Amino acid sequence: MKTFKLLGLLLSYPQSDWLRHLGDSRAILKEEQVLSGKSLAAVLAFIDTLESSDPYQLQEDYVATFDRGRAHCLHLFEHIHGESRDRGQAMVNLAATYAEKGLVIDRAELPDYLPLFLEFLSCCSPGEAIDLLGEPVEVIAAIGRRLQDKGSAYAAVFEALVALSRARPRQDWMAALLASTPADDSLAALDREWEETAAFAAPPGPESCRDCGDRPDGLHLKTTG
C-alpha cells in the first residue's frame, strides 16, 4: 500500500523534488482509503499546510522539530535503547527483516528511521503491515503526544499512524517513554546532551529487540535479486 510510503514521505526532510508532487500524494491517499475519515482529513490538512508554506521555512522547522534532541527523534530504537548495546543488535535484526523482503538500505541511514520503516511496510501485505506498525505504537504515540503538546502540525501524521496500526498503546509504556525522554529541545539542552554522550558506544550484545521497526522516496531501499 502506497499510503505507508506516503506517510513516511511526509515525515522526511522537505525537499523540492517531492514537495512538487504533494497533489499526487493527496490523490493516492484518497484513492486507497486506507486511513479512516478523521485521519485522512487531518493528513490532507497537513498536506495543505505544506503546500502553502515557504520551502525554506519548512526545512528550518523540520530541523528544529526532529533534529534537535531526542524528544521527537525519528529513530525508533533511540527511544527504547538509547545508546545501549541492545540497540546495535536490534538494528541488525531489523535490517535482516528488510532483507527478507529483498530490500537493502542503499544509503547512509539507520534501519530504525521511521520513514524508512514505513517504506518497508509499503512492501508488505496490508495485514502484515498493520501488525508490524502496531509493534512500535507506544513510541509513535509518545512522539505524537509531544508534538501535539508543542502545537506541531506533524502531530497529525503520528496520530494517523497510531489509528492505522489498530493497536492500543499501553499507557504504562507511554508514561515511561514520556518520562524518559527530555521535553526540553533548546540548543542549550542539546549541548548538554552531547556533552554527556560517551565518545564510543558499547558494542552490540546478544540480546535483541524486534518490538520496533523507515526513506520513502525510493532513495534508501533497493530490491535484490
Describe what you observe in this structure.
Helices cover 60% and strands 3% of the residues. With 225 residues, the chain is mainly alpha-helical. It has one domain (2-217). The chain has a two-stranded antiparallel sheet with strand order 1-2. α1 packs antiparallel against α8 and α10 packs antiparallel against α11. It is globular and about 45 Å long. Residues 197-225 have low confidence and may be disordered.
Which labels suit this protein?
3% strand, single chain, 2 strands, 225 residues, two-stranded antiparallel sheet, mainly alpha, globular
On the 0-100 scale, what is the average pLDDT? 82
The rough form would be described as globular
DSSP strand content: under 5%
C-alpha end-to-end distance: 22 Å
Number of domains: 1
**Biggest sheet descriptor:** 2 strands, antiparallel
Report the total helices: 13
Number of strands: 2
Rounded to an integer in angstroms, the radius of gyration calculated over CA atoms is: 17 Å
